[in-house]
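Journal club prep — side note

Before the paper discussion, L.F. wants everyone to see what a predicted structure for a comparable chain looks like in token form. Sequence:
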Amino acid sequence: MYDVLIRNGLIYDGSGQAPFRADLAITGDAVAEVGRISGRGHLELDAAGLAVSPGFINMMCWANESLIYDGRSQSDIRQGVTLEILGEGFSMGPLNDELKAYMKERQGDIQYDIEWTTLREYLEFLTRRGVSPNVASFVGAGGVRANVLGFADRRPDSDELAQMQALVRQAMAEGAVGLSAALIYAPDSYADTAELIALASAAAEYDGLFAVHLRSEGETFLEALEEFLDIVKQSGIRGEIYHLKASGQRNWPKLEKVIARVEAARAAGLPVTADMYTYHASATGLDAMMPGWVQEGGHKAWVARLRDPEVRERLKREIALPSASWENSYHEAGDASKVLCVSFKNEALKPLTGKSLAEIAALRGADPVETAMDLVIEDDSRVGCVYFTMSEDNVRREIQLPWVSFCSDSASLAPEGIFLRSNPHPRAYGSFARLLGKYVRDEGLIPLEEAVRRLSALPADNLKLDRRGRLLPGYFADVVIFDPATIQDHATFDKPHQYATGVRDVLVNGVPVLRDGEHTGATPGRVVDGPGRKLGRH
């Protein structure tokens, strides 16, 4: 007797090969058999007319805090996501006492005690509380830097660099999937290439992946790519470009050159891949329109500088122009009407949620750049924003690249509770369903079996995960049953809190977390280890 028996489904096994009709049996947390099965299951699910696939892997998400508040991870589970990969640039560990205090001070709507120090302790904290998806994380280079140097814009000395490398090695040995860096944001942006090579070399000792938000996706896109490729080559690590995109209309044509360069590097044997989200707008904060020098020293120092009239005048001049030395998201958006303010901490500012920076400036009778500075001061936060900077044609082009997997670059939410106090980017609710509905079914950009491969086996292979990403006997039973004819995203920029539809059932480690489109409340998620822990170096 099997624990679960899924009958009559069309199996998309993650390989990218054509689907086949078969049954799938689960015993405990693993796939027991795939084929025509005569036995019975304690739970039997009829998947006639539906696709059965491996659980989807969210290659880069920001569910660090949302999973603390609500472990059900509903917006992602309802799209078939069974593994959340956390930790872009600033991971939830390691944390010294100063960083714990800083993070506590910077908390917004979601309030929590920081009961951990290491990244491993954070992940185990999540699973003890109970989470529906599996969780894994990169160790963030920015966080490692902050542990040793604080938020100073300077190079580490040899002892400090050794301390940073030791923190990377510890996290890798404890199960981190790799090292990450978000090079347009402070303090990550303060790191030079040599520092990043040193940290990546430490992660490479544990066969980790180096995932990077490039130093530029705009004016110096090509130069930033070369820096990334150099780090990968010099450190001997495998590389991943976070959310591949060209930002700013004048930079859109650069994408083809970037693709050609990556494919040339891959052909020459450099292990480089990328991921993306399926939208033409990004989501970050107002910090993304301000240079690193004004943010040095951390948030309080940034706010203090923004109160200085001379600093404000200098910022207005710098923000008005494209720059080769820092990434100016405001300039790439084109104007303030294409910067949408979606998340505030200050209750008095929450009525502005969903308004553009241009609209807010008009309400105040003020200059948009001055308004951005004032909002950071008044909200005492970076202020969550959406920037419309990308090309839909480029999104379609990226989807067709066989070495690109997919992410949400967002928290995992639900249309309830404190989540309703802000307007997220619709990718939080729709990134994966949008791929399978709009781009696969409706536009036919890639076959469904290829899309499933890039949602499952490709990221699992890139991360070197143990027995994830395929429907094979002995593999963990992360399984999605969905209807290719109806799967659809519904979230919009105006109304983002809308679940995707078309996913009927989701199992995580053999446990149903979604049945007939409704969450079961089950929280079987586990910490998924990177290759360093499997190497026995912990």
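L.F.'s comment for the group: The chain has three domains: 2-53+500-519, 55-280+390-466, 292-387. Keep this in mind when we get to the figures.
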